[in-house]
Every structure is written in C-alpha cells, then in structure tokens.
Specification:
alpha+beta; Alpha-Beta Plaits; 3 helices; about 25% strand; globular
C-alpha cells in the first residue's frame, strides 16, 4: 500500500512565487528519489477556528497564507530510503533552495493509506 507525507505551513503571501519555485525544485528531487506524486496547494477558503484550525496549528499571521501539501510514495520503505537521500541532496540545502517561510511552524507527518478510491 502507498505511503503519504503531509505538510502544512504558513507562507508569507508576498512569497508565493518564491514558494512555487522552491516547491518545483523540491518536487523534482522527491520524484528522483521515488515519490510518485507531489501536490502543493495554496489556501483559498481556510476558516479560523476557536479550538483547532489550520491557521491555529501553524500560528498563521494576517500576512501569511496556508499551504497544504502531500507527497505520495509507493511504500514506506521507499519513502524512508528516499528521505535520507533527499536530505543529503545539495538542491535541498538551505543555501541552494532556502525555505521562503518559517520552517519552525511547519507541521509534517507520515501516513499509512487506509482508503484510496
């Protein structure tokens, strides 16, 4: 069964173009190391919550937009092997492809697929 990595971040709205360029490089690298698909989405209809919400989760500021992204892998084993190579790849180093957002507020997790229709 496939495996999915999910990401949520708050990106300064003025950095949208820089984020897209960053994401294009990252997607190329992820796919070279085995990812099947990389999806990046730019928030459009993100409600504020009182107890939980995407904005609360990443401490989104008024001048930021939520980004929701995921990477689909053929398996967790290929994902684990791929991640090690991705982290070592020069194109993913901060001096080569800096994150145009505050990485400390990035939420990330790996997920087993339980339904895919």
């Amino acid at each position: 069964m496939s495996y999915v990595d999910g990401f949520i971040a708050a990106v300064p709205t003025e950095n949208k173009d820089a984020y897209i360029e960053h994401a294009k490089v990252a997607a190329t690298v992820f796919k070279e190391y085995g990812a099947l698909k990389v999806v990046e989405t730019w928030g459009d209809d993100i409600p504020d919550g009182e107890l939980t919400s995407f904005p609360l989760a990443v401490k989104c500021q008024a001048d930021e937009t939520i980004v929701f992204s995921w990477v689909i892998w053929p398996s967790k084993q290929l994902r684990d092997n791929g991640w090690q190579s991705i982290m070592e790849d020069p194109r993913m180093q901060p001096d080569q492809n800096p994150m145009p957002f505050d990485g400390k507020r990035l939420i990330y997790g790996g997920f087993n697929v339980i339904l895919d229709e």
